[in-house]
Amino acid sequence: MLYNTTLAYMHLGGHNNALLEIYHIFNTFKSLTKHDIFELNILKVNCLRYKKYYNEALSINKSMLASLDKDDKENSISVISNILDIYTVLNDIKLVKLYTDKLIYTKIKK
After folding, report:
1. Rounded to whole angstroms, how far apart are CA atoms 52 and 34?
2. Distance (Å, rounded) from C-alpha 69 to C-alpha 77?
3. Coil vs helix vs strand at 20
């Protein structure tokens, strides 16, 4: 239920409220699965990105990317795409190229 509330706030542009819900979920539910934590962090990163807190969003994304298993291609692609989105907004061509290469490598690596 709280996750759905967070999604609703997110889609309605209530990023501050969504961040509060995410914080509440992390502090209330101590038995969150790895998947739950990943999904909540993706929501958190998206809220931060929309609030233009790019450095914090990048930090969380990079931490998530480093913690993923090498075989977890789907989530790696999701995180790298979020990183690319932020660097595109920041117009950092060098890092856009770097993470585009990582995205391509992630997709074709078997």
Report:
1. 27
2. 12
3. helix
10-33 residue pLDDT tens: 889 899 999 999 999 999 998 999
Cα separation of 67 and 75, whole Å? Answer: 11
Residue 61 has pLDDT above 70, yes or no: yes
Tell me the CB-side half-sphere exposure of residue 76, using CA atoms within 13 A: 19
Instruction: Please give the distance of CA 58 from its chain centroid, rounded to a whole number.
Output: 8
CB-based contacts of 15, cutoff 8 Å, min separation 6: 9, 47, 50, 51
CB atoms within 10 A of CB 35: 9
CA distance 80 to 107: 11
CA atoms of 62 and 80, how far apart (whole Å): 8
